[in-house]
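Example with several molecule types.
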Amino acid sequence: MSAVPAPTRKLRVATTSLAGCFGCHMSFLDIDEHLFELVELIEFDRSPLTDIKEVGPCDIGLIEGGVCNAENVHVLRAFRRQCKTLIALGACAVNGGLPAQRNHLSLSECLREVYQFRPGLENGQIPNDPELPLPLDKVRPIHEVVRIDYFLPGCPPSGPAIWKFLTDLIAGRTPRLTGGLLHYD
Amino acid sequence: MKQFLLDGQPVPFEDGQSILEAARQAGHYIPSLCWHKDFPAHGSCKLCIVKAAGRHVSACATPAKEGWEVESATPEMNGERRALLQMLFVEGNHFCPSCEKSGNCELQALGYEYEMLTSRFRHFYPDRPVDASHPDVLLDFNRCIFCELCVRASRDVDGKAVFALTGRGINKHLVVNAESGRLGDTDFSKNDLAARICPVGVILHKGPGFAVPIGERTYDGQTIREQKLKEES
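Resulting structure tokens for the full complex:
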């Protein structure tokens, strides 16, 4: 992999997981020792890897997971407001992913099945505290909620695919996945 | 011998041959999903779209003509193909990460071939129940791309006419020709051609699944372009 010329200032990168499994973040960490090169080029804003609570102005936002509840929508919109370039990372963000397999089920029946009728539950009831975000009736890809600049598919995208993508982007090239780096599974 | 030009390359053909047939025979790849060399052209998937005589036509259904200049591997045509693939992906539930056909799927492999990164459009999320009534084979109708290869194979080769397409517009769907509508109530066999011909993940064989390791599946080590040219040479 060719070296990336250092930008004049460090790029700010935010990441988040909406209706994700954190697998895309794990795959991001799979770039292994490239992480040392990467921290020379970027600094992290809000991310599960930092302690920053609200996303600030960023160059790049990486979104893992689809949108499955109200809080996901708020976070996604905040990322869109703050990030110049917003990237859908992984199958869930791209097309809803496996969580979207609940889309043909009734949401209330799903919740009742798990919180009321599951064997072994005593006095089960659907959680109703207003602190909890309400689930949406369907899981949606993030591009159905905000405009997305780039899509990086895969469940998860491989470490090498994420590295190629980021180095292209940081170097000012249009990211391109070739030679087996593009996959949906 | 008569010939036409495909992206500037001469392609010989015999009278009555389609652009697609002649191209594949001469070792040039034009993509397709519903076309099969042993069946008449179907013309539903439109992936073989090319520009001939200034018009967009299906290469599988258009007879080659002497001296034509046909454009296929151009940004314009490949862009059309990518859009067609995106339409097929949003129409069905193509959740590759949990599909047993992943790595062996022609629709998916064409997505890779044409560098489809997103399905872009709004997803339909259809809800058609799985038919698991047959002892050896199950059907996931939400992945069907309506190529009719199973319909044609069952009717014309197996002599059973197990499958049919029914409904209109977006409600078109694959059905099983049985009073009950269930595959288990037909004389369908896992050895039928129709049981092996599905280019996507609708017709799946029960028993051990996910048997082929990642890296050794059909389209892991080679592109669909390379695989199809190999099959037909």
